[in-house]
Amino acid sequence: MTLKDYLNTMIGDIVLYGAGGFGKELANVFISHNIQPIAFLDKKITGTVENIDVFHPTKFNDKNVTVILSIVLHKTVRNEVINYLKELGYKNIIDGQVIRAHYVDFEQDYKLVMSDRLKPLSYLADEESILAYKQNVESHLSRNYENYFESDDYMQYFAKIENNNRFQTFVDCGAYIGDTLLEALKNNIEIETYYGFEPISENFKKLQDNTKNISATIYNAGVSNSSGLLYFDNKLGSSNANQNGKTPVQVVKLDDVLNDVYIDFLKMDIEGEEINALLGAKNMIHKHKPNMAICVYHYINHFWDIPNMINDWDLGYTFYMRAHSSACMETVLYAIQGEK
Hints:
With 340 residues, the protein is α/β, with parallel strands linked by helices. The chain folds into two domains: 3-102, Rossmann fold; 114-336, Rossmann fold, CATH 3.40.50.150. 31% of the residues lie in helices and 25% in strands. The protein is built from twelve helices and 17 strands. It has helices at residues 3-7, 21-32, 75-87, 96-102, 114-118, 127-142, 179-186, 201-210, 254-257, 274-280, 282-288, 302-312, and strands at residues 14-17, 39-41, 48-49, 52-55, 66-69, 92-95, 166-173, 190-197, 216-219, 222-224, 228-235, 238-241, 247-253, 265-268, 291-295, 318-323, 331-336. It has a seven-stranded mixed β-sheet with strand order 9-8-7-14-15-17-16, with helices on both faces. The chain has a six-stranded mixed β-sheet with strand order 3-4-2-1-5-6, with helices on both faces. The chain has a four-stranded mixed β-sheet with strand order 10-13-11-12. The radius of gyration is 20 Å and the shape is globular.
């Protein structure tokens, strides 16, 4: 089922619960498919967003609308929100992450090879990893997200390394505003030295503020397999590298900028550029064998291509997979040393 087909299955008027960034993203997705949301519901935001009126959930009178949950939440909190809306009388509630899942695709000109897709089943380390892999890959391939797998772990990027409460060097690719760093510090994970890479200037300024009291080196750049300009194609709320893209982003190669730096934890959440970035850090990874948390959810084929590539390097990693959100989103591959 295509995204257009899925959106056309929705009945009645559309309202979006959550008028923040995800809500704006989904509003534009609907509008681009000639579906005009009639309202936002939000407990904190008032006025208008994207020229759409915002109402407190208790103040909107029509309960027969389709409510799109447009906030990314851990499943426990998400269920609480859904129950809250049902208690108010809203009957038809849809998780907005299912809409996002419909525009996760294969990389351009990708050829699906069955043997490559089956390989992770032979080396993923536990049953939860296998369930996350099998059910989420099948959900994407069938475009049916009723049976996706979602993990209980709430600490994304630290789910399989949370017993390590100290890192000498944390390399954070896709640092955003430093939210992963702040979550680690909040949970008493000690980080001696932090390297952050964030290409978006607005986010980078906040990253500067959030790292000013620690030992940190931050770069207003993304990461890839070479240093220079990379062009991104921004559409449907995602941002993927594309030779025809119109948004230039400065990127660096980790093997160049961190050549002499020892690292013991590497995180990547970089909008589908993970494979190239890993290749650009290959020497560093072979030398130091850091624990790694690498996002695989930006392209369908990354679910197997990323673990297969690292496994083929034969560096002694144990592999886990955890899905930290609904509808296959926020799925992370954990490559952990010292467990075999």
